[in-house]
Amino acid sequence: MLKPIYLDHHATTPVDPRVLRAMLPYFSEYFGNPGSTHYYGWEAQAAIDQARQAIAGAINGTPAEIIFTSGATEANNLAIKGVAEANLAKGRHIITVQTEHQAVLDPCSYLQSLGFEVTYLPVDHLGELDLQQLQAAIRADTILVSVMAANNEIGTLMPLAKIGQICSQAGVIFHSDAAQAIGKIPLDVQAMQIDLLGITGHKLYGPKGIGALYVRRRIAIAPQLHGGGQERGMRAGTLYPPQIVGLAKAIELAMAEMEQEQLRIRQLRDQLWQGLENLPAIQLNGSLEQRLAGNLNCSFGQIFPNKLMSGLRQTVALSSGSACSSGKASHVLRALGRSPSLAQASLRFGIGRFNTEAEIAQVIGAVRASVLDSQNV
What we know:
Elements: E1 5-6, H1 17-23, H2 25-28, H3 39-59, E2 66-69, H4 72-86, E3 93-97, H5 102-113, E4 117-121, H6 131-137, E5 142-146, H7 160-170, E6 173-177, E7 196-200, E8 211-215, H8 241-276, E9 282-284, E10 295-300, H9 305-310, E11 316-317, H10 331-335, H11 340-344, E12 346-350, H12 357-375
Parallel strand pairs: 1-11, 3-4, 3-5, 5-6, 6-7
Antiparallel strand pairs: 2-8, 7-8, 9-10, 10-12
Helix pairs in contact: 1-8, 3-8, 4-5, 8-12
């Protein structure tokens, strides 16, 4: 049986063979604990130092500002809860956006249970943020603004530089979840005035279970894991060289190939949309311009969602929303004004590095057939 075509790259990506080759020696040949003060530890530590430098260079930070984590979820938790605990004397007000990933929304909800106040800013019908609303929401006791770089469901790109300027002028810490953005759009923490930036490896052809948090030097955060004092005391735990090397290699490749790769992927996305846009009762979710190159999210009216998905399973692997919220009506699409039924009758296409024009043509045919069949019931 042939595997379905994979178009769920927002959920996870396959490990690039070049990344795997870079990782393999660190499982057996260079196996030392980087905390050990002997030859084997020094070998491992040298690889980590090199990786830290590569990751910092990709976002215009410094190696000392890169804190390794288990992924973007931990990075975002460390940023949000760490800032909250370290800034209790200044205030207990946080600002975020209704369309954030649960890795941001859930820590904010947790802090609310402890007495913090959180403002959840709305978005417009394209998923874009009103910067005047953001500016008006900042108060004297605001300690943090958290706005993701690129939305994981509809691909909307946020104006990070403008948000960073607003936060900097107000003296408020700016955090951004860049899990979907790293390696796909340029990120410059200096030019964008970003204080905290969360990334992960498995969204850009690196391994799962590894990520990082950029922490600007002047920013104080309280650690959420205590133990051996690793990572400048911000994140305890033995560092895992194979994963860290894999994360750095994935970012290096993505940065080197970004312009060419994103152009090719955008062309595939446009091919897909052109093949679907004349379907009856179809609605594009988000802006076609201000979005990730590989993202297409559509709602289909007058259909049975379960029938639509079941009709596609043998041909294409995709989702109706975030992999972390499977089976629920998307809170992102609801924030855009979609009804619960329409939000559930949506498909998120995530096009990636190894997809081809022939695959997109096959997907177009399968989606058209499944949609028309579902609408005729």
